[in-house]
Amino acid sequence: MAPARAYVNLMAVFLISGLWHGANWTFLVWGGLHGAYLVLSTWAKPARERLAQFTGLAAHPRLRHGLGVLVTFGLVAYAWIFFRANTLGDALYISQHLLSGWNDLNGRKIGALLLEFSQHYRPELAMAVFATGMMLVVEYFGRNRSLQDWVVAQPARVRWPAYIGLTLLILYLGIFNSTSFIYFQF
């Protein structure tokens, strides 16, 4: 298949997936951004390879992979602005002001805001750090073999406390009183 046709097909799939989430411009832009990310990534792959060779990143595959993960995370997080915004105008306003005010927010320094946030949202922050750490551990062990194989290889005295702990964590953090499924909101 010709590259141009493949790019058109990718964009169509992602635009349709945006519409599938809801008949709103925000969802269409969300899907379009993901399609554009994939098309641009595929199209720019030769240039990225040359850049990696030129900068020496090709000799450091783990660093290159880590940078790729960070870039991907940033792009996906940006696209989520459009997914969660009520209107396209709201999303554009957020986008325009996303990087403004880093030195001073209403007379308050960023460090003071982060300290205040960490004091008010300590349990949520701790859970986010813990969950991120767990995902990194799972990803690390899953590189060489499947997570299921790794878990099965552990002795029962390690597996069962983990099973019980994860079950208790689900019971503690779960939202069981809500009957609405997220897609019913669209």
Task: Provide structural commentary.
Keywords: Membrane, Transmembrane, Transmembrane helix. This is MBOAT family protein. 75% of the residues lie in helices and 0% in strands. The protein is mostly helical.
Structural class: mainly alpha
DSSP E strands, number: 0
Give the CA-based shape: globular
Distance between the termini: 36 Å
Backbone CA Rg: 21 Å
- Give the DSSP E fraction (strand runs of 2 or more residues): under 5%
The total number of structural domains is 2
The main β sheet shows up as: none
Helix and strand run: HHHHHHHHH
Low-confidence stretches: none
Write down the overall mean pLDDT: 84
Helix content range of the residues, please? Answer: over 70%
Number of DSSP helices? Answer: 9
Which characteristics define this entry?
single chain; 186 residues; mainly alpha; 2 domains
Record the SSE blueprint.
Elements: H1 3-21, H2 25-43, H3 45-55, H4 61-84, H5 88-97, H6 110-120, H7 122-141, H8 147-153, H9 156-173
Helix pairs in contact: 1-2, 2-4, 4-5
